[in-house]
Amino acid sequence: MNIAHSPAATLDASAGVPRYARAQIVLHWLIALAIIAMLGIGLYMVGLPKGLAFKSSLINFHKSLGMTVFLLVLIRIVVRLVAGRPPLPPMQAWQRAAASMTQALLYVAMIVMPLTGYFGSSFNKFGTHFWGIPLPMWGWDDAGLRKIFFTLHTVSAWVLIALIVLHVAGALKHQLIDRDRLMERMLP
Protein backbone atom coordinates (compact mmCIF):
# COMPACT_ATOMS: atom_id res chain seq x y z
CA MET A 1 0.00 0.00 0.00
CA ASN A 2 1.26 3.47 -0.90
CA ILE A 3 1.22 5.54 2.29
CA ALA A 4 1.44 8.84 0.37
CA HIS A 5 -2.10 8.30 -0.94
CA SER A 6 -3.76 7.11 2.25
CA PRO A 7 -6.27 9.46 3.89
CA ALA A 8 -4.25 9.58 7.11
CA ALA A 9 -1.07 10.65 5.26
CA THR A 10 -2.99 13.38 3.42
CA LEU A 11 -4.49 14.67 6.64
CA ASP A 12 -1.12 14.57 8.40
CA ALA A 13 0.56 16.37 5.50
CA SER A 14 -2.17 19.04 5.44
CA ALA A 15 -1.85 19.59 9.16
CA GLY A 16 1.85 20.37 8.71
CA VAL A 17 1.28 23.39 6.42
CA PRO A 18 1.50 26.64 8.39
CA ARG A 19 -1.66 28.69 7.76
CA TYR A 20 -2.91 32.23 8.19
CA ALA A 21 -5.32 32.89 11.05
CA ARG A 22 -8.98 32.21 10.21
CA ALA A 23 -9.78 35.95 10.42
CA GLN A 24 -7.04 36.72 7.89
CA ILE A 25 -8.36 34.08 5.50
CA VAL A 26 -11.92 35.39 5.73
CA LEU A 27 -10.77 39.00 5.27
CA HIS A 28 -8.50 38.05 2.33
CA TRP A 29 -11.29 36.41 0.34
CA LEU A 30 -13.95 38.95 1.31
CA ILE A 31 -11.70 41.84 0.28
CA ALA A 32 -10.61 40.03 -2.90
CA LEU A 33 -14.20 39.47 -4.04
CA ALA A 34 -15.20 43.03 -3.16
CA ILE A 35 -12.21 44.49 -5.03
CA ILE A 36 -12.96 42.44 -8.13
CA ALA A 37 -16.57 43.68 -7.96
CA MET A 38 -15.36 47.26 -7.42
CA LEU A 39 -13.00 47.15 -10.38
CA GLY A 40 -15.69 45.66 -12.61
CA ILE A 41 -18.28 48.24 -11.54
CA GLY A 42 -15.76 51.08 -11.88
CA LEU A 43 -14.74 50.07 -15.39
CA TYR A 44 -18.38 49.61 -16.40
CA MET A 45 -19.79 52.83 -14.94
CA VAL A 46 -17.23 55.19 -16.52
CA GLY A 47 -18.62 54.22 -19.92
CA LEU A 48 -22.22 55.06 -19.00
CA PRO A 49 -23.66 58.40 -20.19
CA LYS A 50 -23.87 61.29 -17.72
CA GLY A 51 -27.26 62.00 -16.19
CA LEU A 52 -28.40 58.39 -16.25
CA ALA A 53 -30.19 57.57 -12.98
CA PHE A 54 -28.75 54.05 -13.00
CA LYS A 55 -25.23 55.51 -13.25
CA SER A 56 -25.85 57.68 -10.20
CA SER A 57 -27.06 54.66 -8.20
CA LEU A 58 -24.08 52.62 -9.37
CA ILE A 59 -21.65 55.39 -8.39
CA ASN A 60 -23.19 55.57 -4.90
CA PHE A 61 -22.97 51.78 -4.55
CA HIS A 62 -19.34 51.92 -5.78
CA LYS A 63 -18.49 54.57 -3.18
CA SER A 64 -20.14 52.65 -0.32
CA LEU A 65 -18.51 49.38 -1.29
CA GLY A 66 -15.15 51.15 -1.72
CA MET A 67 -15.31 52.64 1.77
CA THR A 68 -16.33 49.22 3.13
CA VAL A 69 -13.28 47.67 1.46
CA PHE A 70 -11.12 50.43 2.94
CA LEU A 71 -12.37 49.64 6.46
CA LEU A 72 -11.90 45.89 5.91
CA VAL A 73 -8.32 46.52 4.73
CA LEU A 74 -7.59 48.55 7.87
CA ILE A 75 -9.00 45.70 9.98
CA ARG A 76 -6.91 43.22 8.00
CA ILE A 77 -3.75 45.24 8.65
CA VAL A 78 -4.46 45.26 12.41
CA VAL A 79 -5.20 41.52 12.41
CA ARG A 80 -1.96 40.87 10.52
CA LEU A 81 0.04 42.95 13.00
CA VAL A 82 -1.50 41.00 15.88
CA ALA A 83 -1.57 37.49 14.36
CA GLY A 84 1.51 37.71 12.14
CA ARG A 85 1.81 35.49 9.11
CA PRO A 86 3.09 31.99 8.47
CA PRO A 87 6.64 31.68 7.14
CA LEU A 88 7.15 31.42 3.40
CA PRO A 89 8.35 28.11 2.04
CA PRO A 90 11.99 27.96 0.92
CA MET A 91 12.50 30.01 -2.25
CA GLN A 92 15.13 32.06 -3.99
CA ALA A 93 15.87 35.54 -2.63
CA TRP A 94 14.49 37.32 -5.72
CA GLN A 95 11.19 35.43 -5.36
CA ARG A 96 10.94 36.35 -1.69
CA ALA A 97 11.66 40.00 -2.54
CA ALA A 98 9.11 39.97 -5.38
CA ALA A 99 6.46 38.45 -3.12
CA SER A 100 7.11 41.00 -0.36
CA MET A 101 7.13 43.92 -2.79
CA THR A 102 3.92 42.80 -4.51
CA GLN A 103 2.16 42.31 -1.19
CA ALA A 104 3.30 45.70 0.14
CA LEU A 105 2.17 47.44 -3.05
CA LEU A 106 -1.18 45.64 -2.89
CA TYR A 107 -1.73 47.10 0.58
CA VAL A 108 -0.70 50.57 -0.61
CA ALA A 109 -3.07 50.36 -3.59
CA MET A 110 -5.93 49.08 -1.40
CA ILE A 111 -5.51 52.19 0.77
CA VAL A 112 -4.78 54.76 -1.95
CA MET A 113 -7.73 53.77 -4.17
CA PRO A 114 -10.56 54.42 -1.71
CA LEU A 115 -8.89 57.51 -0.26
CA THR A 116 -8.39 59.15 -3.66
CA GLY A 117 -11.95 58.27 -4.64
CA TYR A 118 -13.26 59.72 -1.39
CA PHE A 119 -11.17 62.88 -1.65
CA GLY A 120 -12.13 63.29 -5.32
CA SER A 121 -15.79 63.07 -4.30
CA SER A 122 -15.14 65.66 -1.56
CA PHE A 123 -14.34 68.25 -4.22
CA ASN A 124 -17.77 68.17 -5.83
CA LYS A 125 -21.30 68.99 -4.70
CA PHE A 126 -22.37 65.34 -4.34
CA GLY A 127 -19.89 64.06 -1.75
CA THR A 128 -19.85 60.48 -0.54
CA HIS A 129 -22.61 58.57 1.18
CA PHE A 130 -21.60 55.46 3.10
CA TRP A 131 -24.61 53.18 2.69
CA GLY A 132 -26.85 56.26 2.84
CA ILE A 133 -24.96 58.11 5.59
CA PRO A 134 -23.28 61.30 4.30
CA LEU A 135 -19.56 61.41 5.05
CA PRO A 136 -17.74 64.68 5.76
CA MET A 137 -16.68 66.74 2.77
CA TRP A 138 -12.99 67.64 2.90
CA GLY A 139 -13.11 70.21 0.15
CA TRP A 140 -15.25 72.46 -1.95
CA ASP A 141 -16.52 72.19 -5.52
CA ASP A 142 -13.18 72.36 -7.36
CA ALA A 143 -12.85 70.73 -10.78
CA GLY A 144 -9.03 70.91 -10.74
CA LEU A 145 -8.57 69.12 -7.42
CA ARG A 146 -11.33 66.65 -8.30
CA LYS A 147 -9.49 65.81 -11.52
CA ILE A 148 -6.19 65.27 -9.66
CA PHE A 149 -7.76 62.88 -7.15
CA PHE A 150 -9.80 60.99 -9.74
CA THR A 151 -6.74 60.67 -11.99
CA LEU A 152 -4.83 59.16 -9.04
CA HIS A 153 -7.86 56.94 -8.40
CA THR A 154 -7.84 55.70 -12.01
CA VAL A 155 -4.07 55.15 -12.09
CA SER A 156 -4.19 53.24 -8.81
CA ALA A 157 -7.00 51.08 -10.23
CA TRP A 158 -4.80 50.02 -13.16
CA VAL A 159 -1.85 49.48 -10.83
CA LEU A 160 -4.07 47.36 -8.58
CA ILE A 161 -5.23 45.29 -11.57
CA ALA A 162 -1.59 44.66 -12.53
CA LEU A 163 -0.71 43.73 -8.94
CA ILE A 164 -3.66 41.33 -8.71
CA VAL A 165 -2.51 39.64 -11.92
CA LEU A 166 1.02 39.29 -10.45
CA HIS A 167 -0.36 38.02 -7.14
CA VAL A 168 -2.54 35.38 -8.79
CA ALA A 169 0.22 34.37 -11.23
CA GLY A 170 2.66 33.97 -8.33
CA ALA A 171 0.18 31.90 -6.34
CA LEU A 172 -0.52 29.66 -9.35
CA LYS A 173 3.22 29.27 -10.02
CA HIS A 174 3.72 28.09 -6.45
CA GLN A 175 0.75 25.74 -6.66
CA LEU A 176 1.26 24.25 -10.12
CA ILE A 177 5.01 24.49 -10.79
CA ASP A 178 6.80 24.67 -7.44
CA ARG A 179 4.19 22.49 -5.69
CA ASP A 180 5.27 23.97 -2.35
CA ARG A 181 1.69 24.16 -1.02
CA LEU A 182 1.95 27.92 -0.52
CA MET A 183 -1.71 28.46 -1.47
CA GLU A 184 -2.89 26.16 1.31
CA ARG A 185 -1.91 28.87 3.78
CA MET A 186 -4.79 31.06 2.54
CA LEU A 187 -7.41 28.57 1.36
CA PRO A 188 -10.60 28.29 3.42
From TrEMBL:
The keyword Oxidoreductase does not apply. Its cofactor is heme b. The keyword Manganese does not apply. This is Cytochrome B561. One of its GO terms (cellular component) is plasma membrane. Pfam families: Ni_hydr_CYTB. GO terms for biological process: respiratory electron transport chain. The lineage of its organism: Bacteria, Pseudomonadati, Pseudomonadota, Betaproteobacteria, Burkholderiales. It is a multi-pass membrane protein. The chain crosses the membrane at residues 26-45, 65-83, 104-121, 148-172. It is found in: Cell membrane. Residues 19-188 form the Cytochrome b561 bacterial/Ni-hydrogenase domain. Its main location: membrane. GO terms for molecular function: electron transfer activity; heme binding; metal ion binding. Keywords: Cell membrane, Electron transport, Heme, Iron, Membrane, Metal-binding, Transmembrane, Transmembrane helix, Transport. Belongs to the cytochrome b561 family. It comes from Caballeronia mineralivorans PML1(12).
